[in-house]
Amino acid sequence: MSFGPPPAGFGPATPPHSTPPVSTPPASTPPASAPPVWTPPSSIEQALLEAKSREDWPAYFETLADSRLYFEIRRDGADAEPGRIHPVFGHDPRVAGGRIWAVYTEGMLPVPDPHRVFDWQSLGWFAQVWAPTDPAMIVVNPGSPCEAFLPSAPPHSAAWSQHKAEAALNRVRVRALRFGGPLEGPVAQGLACGAPLVVRYGFAWNAMAYHGNGYPGERQSLREWWGVTSREEWQVQQRALLDPDGANPVWEFALGLRRTIARDFGGHVDTAYWRDAVARVLRGRAEGETVITPDGVTSTPTVPEAETEARIKGVQHLVGRITRYEARFRADGILDGNRFVSSVDAWNFGRASAMARWGLGARYCSLPEAESAVIEAGRASARSYKSWQDFAAGYILGRCLHFDDEEFGSWYTDMVEVHGILMSEPGSPWLTVPFK
User: Could you tell me the residue ranges of all domains in the chain?
Assistant: First the structure.
């Protein structure tokens, strides 16, 4: 398939030219400097460039079909009617009539700006929704070496719209930006804390300038999952996730008690002893204690026996849940040998890293604010854990205690898959970024 200037075909629009006669320049003429070599920002743009260079257009379209294709939308329209698409069309003098629909792969997106927002769709969608009033040409990554022109009107669109791989869009894989995203340092370390969620949905783990599921999608997710509909509500959630005392107090009490026993007795903690210790400590607390305050010596009130026994039963049940999850973790390679989960703080800190990016994608914060939150998530994690393996076990246990209820369903199995990839795949931040 030959791709010439639009609208006759696909590919780059280049003006016709003739080859000048070869001549030897005078000795005084300095050699022409070579044009800078373009480095594709990610594996997506690399694949597009390689396919285009060998004119393998089916491979080019298959790469597009396996990628999110972002396009600019009107923010005021998206805010007023979030269920509708409000595209902003562009202009390119190389196209007859000038109007184009510019689309971008993830690595080609600009830094998030309050006044310029994007949505995304899969390749086949553009052919399905095309109307005669829309531009006659879609331009992929305009102005870049991997750009291509796709006639958007039928029957021309049939050549590319048949390539559909939407099911692969969310394939779990480690993806990274080669530039435009940190690969080392405190920001990279903080971003790696959010890798379980970001990698799970196929985004580049180090995309600090995050667009994610697009402006409407990020706002919808924050509204449905977190009840966040404003900058102020995002700030409250972000602060809560970064709070070192913000984890579930019952979970942390049980795990902290086991840490104390392990420290005092040199390692392994028998589950029965752990349960008995829960009862002893809670009964001791229920009897009240004398404390010294600025106002003098006071006593804390005694807790009713029935309430105390209910608490003991609940925490002992939690101990059983934790030990059963840890047994499964060992079988699935999340924990080694007799190691145990020291804390579930990672559940909050990992989500704090992701929340910073979600807030940026939804335009509830600026890039510097998101970056600061990501750095703090990394620092807090380093204070609580010794390694990525420890962090991962804490994150997965927190997720399971919150959602899974010992069903070992997708809330668990998704993380087993992500954990295996992050602990083994070349380029994973858990293998390339130091934890501390």
Answer: 43-168, 186-246+344-432, 249-289+297-331
